[in-house]
Amino acid sequence: MHKEILVIDDNPDIRSLVSNILIDQNFRVRTAANYDQAVFEINKKLPDLAIIDIKLDKVDRDGIDLLKLVIKKNKLIPVIMISGHATVQIAVEATRLGAYEFIEKPFSKEKILNYVNRALESSALKKERDLIENKLFHSFDLIGKSPSIMRVKKIIEKLSTSESRVLISGQTGTGKELVARKIHKNSLRSKEPFVIINAALLKENTYEKELFGEEFDDGNISFGALERANKGTLLIDEVSEIPYQTQANVLRVLIDQKFKRLNGSKDIHVNIRLISSTSKDLQDLVKMNKFREDLFHRLNVIPIELNSLTSRTEDIPLLIEYFKEKLSEINGVQIPNIDMDNDNLYSYNWPGNVRELRNLVERITILSSNETKSNINKLIGDILNPSQSDHISNDILEKSFSSPLKEARKNFEKEYLTTQLKRNHGNISKTADFIGMERSALHRKLKELGIKGIN
Description:
Blueprint: E1 4-8, H1 12-24, E2 28-32, H2 35-44, E3 49-53, H3 63-73, E4 79-83, H4 88-97, E5 101-104, H5 109-139, H6 147-158, E6 166-170, H7 176-185, E7 194-198, H8 207-212, E8 214-215, E9 221-222, H9 225-228, E10 233-237, H10 244-256, E11 258-260, E12 267-269, E13 273-278, H11 282-287, H12 293-299, E14 302-306, H13 316-331, H14 344-347, H15 353-367, H16 373-384, H17 388-391, H18 394-401, H19 405-423, H20 428-435, H21 439-449
Parallel strand pairs: 1-2, 1-3, 3-4, 4-5, 6-13, 6-14, 7-10, 10-13
Antiparallel strand pairs: 8-9, 11-12
Helix pairs in contact: 2-3, 13-15, 18-19, 19-20
């Protein structure tokens, strides 16, 4: 199918010129002559690529606002900005906001086609990567034969014909999102959307907007998670982080099955299956008046608790066999010879649970696919039990031994996380992956310990 390009420019000659160049190359073209037409066309249907002039007919709105609108709707849609009067600052701002390229007028046919083709190619690669990552996530299964995992599997099976709400609890990395996806996949809603909103990652003033959506004066609409999940399943991850006042509004949606967007006056009716997950004890939060008791009971219709990996060590060999085959296939390398009798695998505390184990297997798979069993054993020992001198300075160690346990643990955690952040040049995502924590949990821990950004 031919790619569709939206050309937005208030100059009819430029619109005609660019449109004809693109049509000659078998692109489908839509055009907009002013800001309002552009908003209408963008809201009607997103193109595969947009070419937007900076200066348009509105004094208070310009091409930069349209760029923001497109990026907000889908960040994978490439946008090429054009202008004959733009400053360097505007060009830099457009690029910072997500524009693929900035072209000054006048431009040649070859130049515009070169940028269009490169932008579409880049977008296709990003979409393909996202698709692969999505399939990769979906391909993992709930592995284990321990009593706790068998119990979870039976609950998922029984939920296949149910519409009941589910509350999944468990430590970081135990597989809460995976269980939620399995419930959705086995349900009567499996062909409908599965939407995730991570409450731990949202800023305090954005919860309502992210959940309910927002209406703007220019007629533009930002759809919230509830609306995007209509007819399907909504997973609210780390539901305990939703502010107390917003919890009341979520409860009202569960009762009425309707809500209003921010700044909206019309009721939006929804039919969703709600699954919530938490790494905190919601009943404790209810006692401390930090979580609404009435909402807790609405969410906790079918509770599922995921045990830590250290409480089901009999599943570790099964998980390793599963991950090493999957990850070897994905990375195109030989399956590593991991010794299942390695004591380190069973004595280690696994703070990141199954996610940390998977990260370990992936590292071994990539770095040691052709190594001997003894070399792999040594590598596993080095990863799981790094030398104290590698992580804790003598000053910290001495200070810890002369401190109460709680303070010593805090000193260790602060030094350990600071070291890991430095190793990863301050990259939170890489650090979280390495130590086996969720990004949201790491952010909270860094804030708790008073560790600021590291360059």
